[in-house]
Amino acid sequence: MTDATLAAPSSVPTGQGSPKGPGPVLSLRGAELTLGDRRLWSGLDLDLFPGEFVAVLGSNGSGKTSLLRAILGEYGLSAGTGEFLGHPFHRGDPRIGYVPQHHLSDAGVMMRGRDLVALGLTGHRWGPGWPSPRRRARVDALLAEVGALAYADAPVGLLSGGEQQRLRIAQALAADPQLMLCDEPLASLDLRAQAEVVGLIDAQRRRRGFGVLFVTHDVNPVLEVVDRVLYLGNGRFRIGPPDEVMRSEVLSDLYGAPVEVIRAGGRIVVVGAPEQPHHPVPRRA
Amino acid sequence: MDGIWGQLFNFSDYGQLFALLHNSVIAGGVLGLVGGMVAVFVMQRDLAFAVHGTSELSFAGGAAGLLFGIGVVPGALAGSLVAAALIGIFGARASRRNSVIGVMMPFGLGLGVLFLSLYPGRSGNKFGLLTGQIVAVDDPRLTVLAVICAIVAIGMLVVWRPLLFASLDPEVAAARGVPTRFLSFVFMMLLGLTVAVSVQIVGSLLVLSILVTPAAAAMRLTHSPNRAVLWSMLFATVSMVGGILLAMGATVPISPYVTTISFTFYLMATGIGALRARRAAWQQSVVQATPGLG
User: Fold this and answer.
1) Is residue A115 part of a domain?
2) Are B177 and A73 in contact (CB < 8 Å)?
């Protein structure tokens, strides 16, 4: 840790018992994010350890995606500190993998699956990148790892949502990340594809040991694999194992309004969580 | 009938004409190579309308250059670079970009018409900026055009991969730290340079036949971005050189020849693409109908 952490108020307790080997890949202390005149969340403390799977939940406009963008260095924190592998958040760290919602409508027909993965491998480098057998082999290996070899030469835009997300994961794995940021990767996928994508990310984080921050509006698809949930709402947050956070009294306390958490048939449904006032999402810089 | 044919195709004294106009052929070939390369990124970034808008301002610049004696090349360059910069700065988002271009384009065209009507010189020159011409490209001018094309080609090679990333997958590219805004501006500048050269050869109204059609045809043949560039360069170069060679003996401007060849490539590529899609769908149905293969 650098002196930036020492400057933070020391009264803040550490998120989890840190003396369990390696330090956190991601560490936020008293972090606050303000966009325009709206404070999305403040006082956020979070340690994400290698191999840990944390789901980020909360209603629309609670700042889930903005948290990812702050970690990517696209938004600056308005207070507190945020560090990735001991360095303040900054743009373009290759050790962070990023999986967005799948939507490649027009551009999707102008490249093949293997082109998408190759972009994750060397797309950020200058120069034309002449064809190389070594790079091709790396791309093939990544495609095989996510089970996407069969459709690697088809245009991305013609693939199903689940197939596109497999390619997205291969693209993010290309840089051998220490942290995987997933921004609603399950949106508009059918249940089977959701389960496949979650299973793939879960298997890879166990195999490769990267931490996962997984933004989702529904906890159920990740309930089996998630270690902790970070619930954002009302400018505040709750963090802990799903059984501790996904409870009526905890969320009612968070929102300061009655919220009911219903468990039925192994599923969790949150009823009555107030929507945040909508804010215009600023375009990324 | 014979008269029209004679005006369109006339190959008498072809050797002498070629000797006189071979600089134009070289200029066209170089432009084809560079234009075909740029065109693929124009398609990926959905900038066809921006190309059209830039070319009209380039036309206005060229006309101003003619009227004020600065020269067509510097005028056209200035016009298209100003347009490209405006689009690059104010048009980061597609909806906004289209309105910027839609406002700018008629204004540029109007200015160009004004400058041309005030120009006292020969009317053939005037028309050329709009519809293309193969007036003898003298050596100094060929050098300027070739140097501009070389700058574009080198610039494109330098930004190639990040530009491809930012064009095809902007969200992940930004997350990986690719400077998407900067690249967008750089590409608009390179595009502006290419347009300025194109305007002087195929004319401002038909720049799209070099900066869109070849890439559109290429994308019917392949889904690989890099292979699309090679096809597009081939189509653009053959259209340009072939168009100029056919136009040499004719009394009509060069643009109809270029656009016709370019369009023919597009039709052929579309036909081949459709055939392939049908064959793929047929094979798919066979696979699905055969148990144990799906």
Assistant:
1) yes
2) yes
Q: Which two tokens stand for residue A254?
A: 């968070």
Which of A176, A203, A230 is the last residue before a domain boundary?
Answer: A176
Q: Model confidence over B26-58: pLDDT tens digits? A: 999 999 999 999 999 999 999 999 999 999 999
Element (H, E) at B239: helix B225-247
Assess whether A277 and A186 both reside in one domain: yes
Cβ-based interface (< 8 Å): residues of A facing B: 72-74, 91-94, 96, 98, 100, 104, 106-107, 109-112, 115-116, 119-120, 122-129, 131, 153-155, 168, 171-172, 175, 181, 283-285
pLDDT for A209-249, tens place per residue?
999 999 999 999 999 999 999 999 999 999 999 999 999 99
Tell me if A43 is assigned to some domain.
Answer: yes
Straight-line distance from the first to the last Cα atom of chain B, in angstroms, rounded to the nearest whole number: 60
In a domain, A144, yes or no: yes
Distance from CA of B289 to the nearest CA of A (A): 18
Residues of B in contact with A100 (CB under 8 A): 171-172, 175
Q: Which of B172, B178, B283 to mutate to test the interface with A (most CBs of A within 10 A)?
A: B172
Band (B236; pLDDT cuts 50, 70, 90): very high
- What is the spatial distance between Cα B128 and Cα B54, in angstroms, rounded to a whole number? 17
Q: Do B92 and A93 touch (CB under 8 A)?
A: no
For residue A39, the enclosing domain spans: 22-95+177-285
Tell me whether B44 touches chain A (CB under 8 Å): yes
How many C-beta atoms surround the C-beta of residue B139 within 10 A? 9
Partners of residue A120 in chain B, C-beta under 8 Å? 172, 176
* In the predicted structure, residue A134 carries a pLDDT above the cut 80: yes
Q: Which of B174, B181, B225 is nearest residue A111 as measured by Cβ atoms?
A: B225
Q: Residue B249 and residue B5: Cα distance in Å, rounded?
A: 11
pLDDT of residue A15 exceeding 80:
no
Question: What ipTM did this prediction achieve?
Answer: 0.89
Q: Which of A186, A171, A161 is nearest to A56 (CA)?
A: A186
Contact call for A124 and B161, based on CB within 8 A = yes
B175 touches chain A (CB under 8 A): yes
Contact A175 B176 (CB under 8 A): yes
Do A171 and A186 fall into the same domain? no
In which band, very low, low, confident or very high, does the pLDDT at A263 lie, cut at 50, 70 and 90?
very high
With b meaning 16 or more CB within 10 Å and e meaning fewer, what string describes A156-191? bbebebbbbbbbbbbbbbbbebbbbbbbbbbbebee
Which domains are delineated in chain B? 2-289 (1.10.3470.10)
pLDDT at B115: 92
A270 domain residue, yes or no: yes
Residues in Cβ contact with A93 at an 8 Å cutoff, skipping those fewer than 6 apart: A73, A84, A87, B177
